User: What shape does this take?
Amino acid sequence: MNLSRRAVLSTSAALASSVMLPQNSFAQEQPRRGGVMTVHFATEQRILNPSLQASTGVYIVGGKIQEPLVDLDAAGNPAPCLAESWESSPDGKTITFKLRQGVTWHDGKPFTSADVQFTAMEMWKKILNYGTALQLFLEAVDTPDPHTAVFRYARPMPMNLILRAMPDLGYVSAKHVYEGSEIRQNPANTAPMGTGPFKFVQYERGQFIIAERNPNYWRNNLPYLDRIVWRVVGDRSAAAAQMEAGQILFSPYSALAIADFQRLGRDPRFDVTTKGNEGNARTNTLEFNFRNPILADIRVRRAIAHALDVPFFIENFLGDFAKKGTGPIPSVSTDYYPGPDTPQYPFDRRRANALLDEAGHRRGAGGVRFTLRLNPAPWGEDIALWSTFIQQSLQEVGIRVEIVRLDAAGFLRTVYNDWNFDLATGWHQYRNDPAVSTTVWYRSGQPKGAPWTNQWGWTDAQTDQLIDAAQTELDPAKRKALYGDFVRRVNDQIPLWMPIEQIFVSVFNKRLRNYANNPRWASSSWHDLWLAS
Amino acid sequence: MRVFALAGRRLAASLPTLLIILVGVFLLLQLAPGDTVDALMAQMGGGGDAQVAADLRAFYGLDLSVPAQLGNYLWRLVRLDLGFSSIYGKPVATVILERLPATLLLMASALSFAFFFGLLLGVLAARRVNGWPDTLISTLGLVFYATPSFWFGLMAIVLFAVHLEWLPAGGFEEIGAGYTGLRRTLDIATHLVLPTLTLGLIFLAIYLRIMRASMLEVLSLDFVRTARAKGLDETRVVVRHVLRNAMLPMVTLVGLQAGTMLGGSVVVESVFSLPGLGRLAYESVVQRDLNTLLGIVFVSALLVITVNFIVDLLYARLDPRIGAGG
Assistant: This one.
């Protein structure tokens, strides 16, 4: 996090005073059993089963009911969940998971390797977003015994790639619920059944979802909570009011207004923080359409990047919850972040003007060189602010920008399928390994219409080579080096630019205990969460 | 019997209108870029597979031409089948039926509140025309009318739910409390107080203005003078003679606005997190769930037709000069 001087000062002042005391007493508190956790559920989902859809809106519910093979521990390292251990063959083509014994589904049937096999082949490989690409070369899952699942791949699968991917893309569904049915239509999609600490009870569309304590959970004597209630509240201001009224105890994934984060952050009843979301980093993008000859010129793209005063924008609009980005791999990704010394485009209006002049775009009437359309994605207040900031910044260097606002479906169709845009801006959500979420934005040969992939009309043989080599590289150090080269190459060529890094913001009621204790906390199972009275 | 014949005739006359509305909405939504699969991809937030998307389009019948899709829809409608909702994964009729009670409850309570107090305040203002009660009531009316309802709603939440903690901040009932009978009715009622006031205040403002003007107009007519000349006291004149005649414009307006209230409640439903038709319609547009949207349009249209029919019957009752058959 980019701490301002004000924040640092106030923190050290707080440390100096005796405010430390209550913190200490937390540690000695005995976990209290019982209580109802209420959660802000901003956008209703069509399905709640995380084996079928990988998105934060699904994990926030399904992640308490179903469990993945591998989870993340407090330090962000892969930790056993439904799989107790794992190993890879020397050629990287076979990965063996030893499964936890004595785990039962919520309906009482035992959890076995057949469930893993079914989920991997029928859901992860065929339906799950990100999963279809990750498991593209998965040939079969063998089940030599009920507690061993052997994944066989046609190409080497790096162990750290699969382990980084599993916490999000490794949720297991029960074979006996889905087998022989049309998976997309199965009633369990909105009434999920799993092995997790909470059992699904009820989903009233437009109102709430309820899950209750699973008394037979494999982590003995857990969870602490009796119930979780997700309240559907679409309006941001209304959600903030419900937080204040105590009807909601937790609002995940930056679902309140930026002004409310600042307001609630000053209120001693709440903790407004990015902690617990380190595994959900995102970058703000600036996407260029190469079919427009003006933008196919690298000088113009670089000029546009130079024309944006990113630190000014962050300081004045996003506050402490964002920092200057340096490319596609965000700095929270300690395994792959290549450092800030890659080609960058610091704010320099003179240089931007010079580059545009050099590209032959002289200022015409009214100082305008040319006009571009900018399509901002409709999610996130920051995107709306960022798009107007782009518009005003580019006006200073003689580029007129018309903003074209569309809703979600319209944005995806127009930008990624119809290619009917000049500039577009939205989020790139980083999923802890570049091969899962990031390289598709740059690799050529993406099918037309696949959103958040390289639909720019840009092809670069060197980039493709680096991506393919890293995809199957088994040595973690070499893999990291390849991704460093990849970032240097794409930052230099700038087919799209990712100048802002953000982590989702959570608002917690301070009655919660054991919150934000892992890097994907909002998505995780909450088995150790409890409520102080 | 005559009423039923009239109802039948009215319904038959409404059928072409209904058809035009449905086809219009269908074509209008075709103009919006993107379909329900795009909306689903947007929810996924990345990593969507092009093949999976193509399969889904075939599954929802979106790979057909627009006329074929429209034809399919109308043919299903003829058989009274509203189709399947792509976002909710169940029949549209079920989805709408789940949402209808909350909407009707909110609409009925807001409308009755606005009607009753609009009437009362309008009469009061007309009785004391240009006096201080009139000025006060008219000014208040103007303030209510000019204030956006989402702001009203949010301020009501901040005051009554956050600060005073008298009423719940949102929702339709206490979740998971398992109340039944009278306890549940009371619970729902407390949840609906703020939404009703928010939705009702704007309509209240309109009704009191109309009522005031209409009262003043009727008060100046000859038969009122006759009534007074007969020696009737003022209350009797107002209640028996003036009010009944002054009600006609009000009733017309209520009939017209019963339809608007369905749409007007999107904002109130969102602010108070109520599971109503307005939010469902909004969601269906954003998610391009054509079947659900058309279903809502269909049900709303039926509702408006019904209300208008009732209003016509009321006319005849209030003013016998208007024949129900004419």
